[in-house]
Structures are given as C-alpha cells and as structure tokens.
C-alpha cells in the first residue's frame, strides 16, 4: 500500500495518524524505509518499517459510504455478547486488533449493552473508551466534522440499537 507524506491513515487500536515523513533509517544494523507517523489523539510519534505496514494493519481512512455502513451496524440492534467477561474480553480484544471499523463497531455495541446491565471491568471500560474514540476520530476526519459532532452521531446510533433490542425483547 502506498501512503504519502501528509496523508491521514488509521493505525489499528490507536486511531487516526498523519504520515509526517517517509525515509530510510537504520535500526539494529538493518537499513529499511520507515514511515514516521504522528498519532493525532496525543501527538505521540511512531515509526513503522515499510515491510511491517500490512502486519500492523495500517490502512487509509475509510470513505463516506463506509461511515454510513458503520452507523447502520451501530444502529441495527444485533448485539452478540459472551456471558463471562474473560471470553467477552478476548473476543473484543481480537476484534480491536484488526482495526476494521465493523469489528470495532461490534466491540463498542457489545460493551455498551453490557454497561447497561452492569458495570464494566476496568479493562473493559478502557476498551470501550478506545473503541469509541477510534470510531469517533475516523468519522470526524472522514466527514470533516468536529469530534463532538461525530460522537453525537455515534451516540444516537448506539441508543437506537439498544432501543431496537428492547422493542424486540418486548415483542
């Protein structure tokens, strides 16, 4: 995948980053091409060797149509949860690592539902916050809106999913 300097890309589990430089470098005596990224969430910097781009799952921002599909996933009311927190945590962790929006959306929906029933563990709270930020930041950048507006879109979709689920259970 060819990324360019100045391009916004998604670093799985961390969110939107900016490609600041692409230049050769030497680490442990190995010379290779490195992508210098700045995480927009906290301005930290990461260097990713070109050979590892696929391994870490670096990908371009999604398109507007993918944002619409994401919001539909969040709204649909279909929520799959494990009963025990260990299984749920492992399943959600695996989905978060993919960096795919549909997977992260499933994690967000799942944890929102669980949080309605009982309090989340510390790790699950952190995962919920990370999943939400991951989605909100990408939606904001793709749609060219403030993160606050993107968060409102996501919240409305999650609320709609829970309402659909309650109506389905009542029927």
In short:
54% of the residues lie in helices and 20% in strands. It has helices spanning 53-56, 64-75, 85-98, 101-117, 122-143, 147-170; strands spanning 8-11, 15-27, 30-39, 45-49, 59-60.
Question: How does this structure look, described?
Answer:
The protein is built from six helices and five strands. The protein has 171 residues and is of the alpha+beta class. It has a five-stranded antiparallel beta sheet with strand order 4-3-2-1-5.
Summarize the topology:
Layout: E1 8-11, E2 15-27, E3 30-39, E4 45-49, H1 53-56, E5 59-60, H2 64-75, H3 85-98, H4 101-117, H5 122-143, H6 147-170
Antiparallel strand pairs: 1-2, 1-5, 2-3, 3-4
Helix pairs in contact: 2-4, 2-6, 3-4, 3-5, 4-5, 5-6
């Amino acid at each position: 995948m060819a990324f360019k300097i100045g391009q916004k890309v998604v670093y799985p589990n961390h969110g939107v980053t900016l490609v600041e430089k692409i230049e050769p470098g030497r680490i442990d005596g190995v010379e290779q091409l490195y992508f210098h990224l700045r995480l927009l969430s906290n301005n930290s910097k990461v260097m990713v060797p070109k050979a590892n781009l696929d391994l870490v799952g670096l990908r371009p921002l999604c398109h507007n149509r993918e944002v619409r599909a994401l919001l539909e996933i969040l709204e649909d009311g279909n929520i799959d949860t494990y009963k025990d927190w260990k299984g749920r945590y492992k399943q959600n962790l695996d989905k978060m690592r993919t960096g795919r929006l549909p997977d992260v959306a499933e994690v967000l929906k799942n944890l929102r539902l669980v949080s309605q029933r009982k309090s989340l563990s510390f790790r699950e709270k952190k995962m919920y916050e990370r999943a939400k930020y991951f989605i909100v930041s990408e939606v904001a950048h793709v749609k060219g809106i403030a993160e606050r507006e993107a968060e409102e879109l996501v919240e409305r979709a999650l609320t709609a999913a829970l309402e659909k689920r309650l109506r389905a259970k009542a029927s």
